[in-house]
Design brief:
Layout lengths: L1 H33 L1 H39 L17 E3 L6 E3 L27
Antiparallel strand pairs: 1-2
Helix pairs in contact: 1-2
Length: about 130
């Protein structure tokens, strides 16, 4: 339960902070014409709140990794809770059922897919390579 909540918060944290800053910009822009002191105060607050926002994002990421590690050690996918068996091996743990991938420290793996793919034939063009 905790792991799923942390994963949901972590996946949407960046866009949420972006839209909060965008809304603050809108209020500050309107405040520039109606009450200039409000706009100055909001700019200063935005500057000073950037560091806590980044630190909070790091804290959510650390808590998410800590919640994922016990599942990875047991050989269970943290996303779908499916038992992986012998196929579950590092350095990138990829679920055979839901295709989510995790690194050894519990961090979701966002890198390129390491699976071997078949090369497309040279005649794969629209006219058959002619």
């Amino acid at each position: 339960m905790v792991q799923r909540v942390l994963a949901a918060v972590r996946s949407r944290y960046g866009i949420t902070v972006f839209f909060l800053y965008l809304a603050a910009f809108g209020v500050a822009f309107v405040g520039t014409f109606t009450l200039p002191l409000l706009a100055i105060g909001m700019v200063l607050a935005a500057i000073f709140m950037l560091v806590p926002a980044v630190l909070l994002g790091d804290l959510v990421g650390a808590m998410s990794r800590a919640a994922n590690r016990p599942y990875i050690r047991r050989g269970t996918c943290p996303t779908c809770r499916a038992d992986q068996g012998a196929a579950w091996e590092g350095p990138v743990y990829r679920c055979a059922f839901c295709a989510s991938a995790f690194e050894e420290d519990g961090d979701p793996h966002d890198g390129p897919d390491m699976a071997v793919r078949e090369a497309a034939p040279a005649t794969a063009g629209p006219n058959g390579g002619r």
